[in-house]
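[Protein data]
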Amino acid sequence: MARKNTLMKSIQANGYPIHFNENAYEALNKHLAENKYSAIFIFADSDTNEHCLPLFLPNLETDLNIEIVEFEPGESNKNIETCIELWNVLTELGADRKSLIINVGGGVVTDMGGFVASTFKRGIDFINVPTTLLAMVDASVGGKNGIDLGNLKNQIGVINVPQMVLIDTHYLATLPQNEMRSGLAEMLKHGLIFDKRYWSLFLDLNNLNTDDLDTLIYQSVEIKNTIVMQDPKENGIRKSLNFGHTLGHAIEGYFLENENKTTLLHGEAIAAGMILESYISLKRNLISEEEYEEIKTGIDAIFERIVFEEKDLQPILELLVHDKKNEYGTIQFALLDGIGNIKTGQIIDNELIVDSFLEYNS
């Protein structure tokens, strides 16, 4: 598909810049020229090594020694075992305090790569190059780096910002359809919690071209950045980003550990979480029946429904107890307060949570 050369202005996030498309490599090479790094270590999973590094490496202008460190793809490898392997590889290859890690890949690569960089020798510089739609609009903003503890998502981690984030939407051409859809979930969420007009753009995706997508990605990053800049440590408004994630993460974790279930992509689980939590918002009189129907219809047009059996509900409820957003032993929800607004710190009883699954299945 033809693409106009849309120059998108860099966005200043909390302590680092986010550069787009052609600007990105110019900024990266300038950074490499100005900082006396000892070596560059590129972290990539086997998928991004094959599909994305051939696009990335020709744009890199440096005389520094470059080592490519590859690991297995997927959420099931985002754990401390992989981190230990990566710390060992860095040590064996002679990485020091002046080394730079560049994470090229989806959210698993940037989450874990940022965590490894933040903890190796008490912290070395890293740059993130998100290559999936999900990582561009979600993992790129906010400085959250972390790994899973068993099936509990992102339980171990730090908030630490990269030197810069480079978003080049040309990488999206390497993505399968289901990965593209997965990223749309976070974009839908940004509209639902913050900007009704932005949400409404997704109600008809049929006429979307690549330039429109570039603009939607840019706006999504702007929305998330606006929220994070107000609340970097997640003490207040940043909790609004958890909409759809309280139940979504529990669903994702349950399907990840259960061998009788097909592992879900993050966005697939979050799409279900948003429908469930919209129903809870409806039952708490925070949104109207019309708004609930609009949300359901909008999400259903993009995502297939997940099949929940009765025996799935109890284990999913048990996973909620470990949600890292909980405080003082209570499960905290971020619920919609009309489309485009959010109410955080909402405590919901199990009965209503079970009702939301029954409604989802009906």
Q: What stands out?
A: The first strand starts at residue 11 and ends at 12.
